[in-house]
């Protein structure tokens, strides 16, 4: 949790590699073994990003070694609040998304530029 007078960057927890603005996007890089014990750090980073940025959130999963349904549920709940993109993730992460059908909602991409293009296209289609 971010303490009074401290920025989120100064208090980045182990499960979060980075959290930063990138143009209209906010990117949160996750790392390590992400299970329910680590999820609070990811939730804090997400809440901070939602307050700081009005654009889409992107989750970088390249350094995630393991995740379970707790991270998947977090990503889906976040997608109800804001446009979300994800990229990276090993075969285990992709299999979790595929088996649950979440890949149709979260649309995993191989890299940041693919996510950026997809989110930009989605925003153009949503405009009247």
For the record, what CATH class applies?
Alpha Beta
Poorly predicted residue ranges: none
Radius of gyration: 14 Å
> Can you count the beta strands?
5
Overall mean confidence score, pLDDT: 87
Distance between the termini: 39 Å
Structural class: alpha/beta
Helix content: 40-55%
Beta-strand percentage?
25-35%
Overall body shape: globular
Quick description:
This protein has 128 residues and is α/β, with parallel strands linked by helices. It is built from five helices and five strands. The chain has helices at residues 39-52, 69-81, 91-100, 103-106, 112-126, and strands spanning 16-22, 25-34, 57-67, 84-87, 108-109.
Q: How would you describe what is shown here?
A:
With 128 residues, the chain is an alpha/beta fold. The chain has one domain: STAS domain (Transcription Regulator spoIIAA, 2-Layer Sandwich), CATH 3.30.750. It has a 5-stranded mixed sheet with strand order 1-2-3-4-5. Helix 1 packs parallel to helix 2. It is globular. The N and C termini lie far apart (39 Å). The model has no long low-confidence stretch (mean pLDDT 87).
Primary descriptors:
single chain; 128 residues; alpha/beta; Transcription Regulator spoIIAA
Question: Topology, pairings included?
Answer:
Elements: E1 16-22, E2 25-34, H1 39-52, E3 57-67, H2 69-81, E4 84-87, H3 91-100, H4 103-106, E5 108-109, H5 112-126
Parallel strand pairs: 2-3, 3-4, 4-5
Antiparallel strand pairs: 1-2
Helix pairs in contact: 1-2
